[in-house]
């Protein structure tokens, strides 16, 4: 259950958490054409708090909306500032931030007509997405019976609400079968991503990730590619197959919620030593150092605020 905060920013106003309600004929509730973001704020080493790559996330929210043809009735700056305001009014030194843009109620039917475009921003404390142990011990993964979207069926560069029915089907199937997460292949059979994360594999110290074909352009993915290259690693964006993953030395998922989560097993095949490997350990350490303001090189990725 989400731990409630006091206020939610809703269409430009801060309202009480329980008052942030919509009508059951809200268009996006029925047809899924809405977009959202997942962003994290962290307590930093110098006592302040900071949101990680806030601007990139807000820009992606606007890009997602543009792809779906939704016009957000606020500017990037207004949403950027509203996110910081919502964190502060809720006294959250660290936590998860969920902006959502959706089509309100009015006309029904597939065409959204002139229904209003609404925006809300919720914030709440959210620990390790896949469990505290997962960050260290890694997780067990199953290749899903569901493919990731064909790139001309759902718009995969848009973090669109409706895209996540695909994620839900895969995640529920994997968990019911006793696994922690689902790995999804694209419609050509190459590895795509997980239900809420991008994926990296490591082989002979070369780090590989899926190109931006069927996947969400993850901000954690981009950050880890930069950090890995700064550490001197070769990082390639290249399609790879599930059996290349099976014989990798290491593999890990990444995302705002999942942070950097090692994969210890896929389809009952142990990956590498079956635990967090040296490269994953280093990147996870550097990632957490960066988000908490411990590395001057990446302080430009932080929007600081104080409670
Ligand atoms: C499909 C998908 N792929 C990759 C990522 C990683 O993107 P980024 O966060 O920019 O590095 C996410 C984020 N998933 C968000 C939603 C999780 C949820 O369960 O809700 C998140 O990590 O916040 C995805 O949903």
Number of domains: 2
| Low-confidence runs | none
* Fold-level CATH name of the largest domain: D-amino Acid Aminotransferase, Chain A, domain 2
What compounds sit in this structure?
Answer: the ligand Cc1[nH+]cc(COP(=O)(O)O)c(CN[C@@H](CCC(=O)O)C(=O)O)c1O
Name the structural class: alpha+beta
Question: Under the CATH scheme, which architecture of the largest domain would be assigned?
Answer: Alpha-Beta Barrel
CATH superfamily of the largest domain: D-amino Acid Aminotransferase, subunit A, domain 2
The helix count comes to: 8
Instruction: Name the beta content range.
Output: 25-35%
Q: What coarse outline follows from CA principal-axis ratios?
A: globular
The helicity comes to 25-40%
Estimate the mean pLDDT confidence: 97
The largest sheet is:
9 strands, mixed
Give the assembly state of these chains.
single chain
CATH class of the largest domain: Alpha Beta
Write the element-wise H/E pattern from the N-terminal end onward.
EEHEEEHHEEHEHEEEEHEHEEEHE
Gyration radius, to the nearest Å? Answer: 19 Å
Total strands: 17
InterPro entries: Aminotrans_IV, Aminotrans_IV_CS, Aminotransferase-like, B_amino_transI, BCAT-like_C, BCAT-like_N, BCAT_family, Class-IV_PLP-Dep_Aminotrnsfr
EC number: 2.6.1.42
Protein name: Branched-chain-amino-acid aminotransferase
Family: Belongs to the class-IV pyridoxal-phosphate-dependent aminotransferase family.
């Amino acid at each position: 259950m989400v731990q409630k905060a006091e206020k939610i920013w809703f269409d430009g106003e801060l309202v009480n958490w329980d008052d942030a309600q919509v009508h059951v004929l809200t268009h996006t509730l029925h047809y899924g054409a809405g977009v959202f973001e997942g962003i994290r704020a962290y307590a930093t080493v110098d006592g302040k708090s900071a949101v990680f790559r806030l601007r990139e996330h807000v820009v992606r929210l606007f890009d997602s909306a543009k792809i779906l043809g939704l016009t957000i009735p606020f500017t990037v700056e207004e949403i950027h500032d509203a996110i910081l305001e919502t964190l502060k009014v809720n006294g959250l030194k660290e936590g998860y931030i969920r902006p959502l843009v959706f089509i309100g109620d009015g006309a029904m039917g597939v065409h959204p007509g002139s229904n209003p475009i609404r925006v809300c921003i919720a914030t709440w404390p959210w620990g390790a997405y896949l469990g505290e142990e997962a960050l260290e011990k890694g997780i067990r993964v199953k290749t899903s019976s569901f493919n990731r979207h064909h790139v001309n069926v759902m718009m995969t560069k848009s973090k669109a609400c409706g895209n996540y029915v695909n994620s839900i089907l895969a995640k529920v199937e994997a968990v019911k079968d006793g696994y922690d997460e689902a790995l999804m292949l694209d419609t050509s059979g190459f590895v795509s991503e997980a239900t809420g994360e991008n994926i990296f594999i490591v082989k002979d110290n070369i780090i590989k990730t899926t190109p931006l074909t069927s996947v969400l352009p993850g901000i954690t993915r981009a950050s880890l590619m930069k950090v890995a290259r700064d550490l001197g690693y070769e990082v390639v964006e290249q399609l790879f197959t599930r059996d290349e993953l099976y014989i990798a030395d290491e593999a890990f998922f990444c995302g705002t919620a999942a942070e950097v989560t090692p994969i210890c097993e896929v389809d009952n095949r142990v990956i590498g030593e079956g635990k967090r490997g040296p490269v994953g350990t280093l990147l996870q350490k550097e990632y957490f150092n960066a988000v908490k303001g411990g590395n001057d090189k990446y302080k430009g990725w932080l929007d600081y605020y104080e409670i």
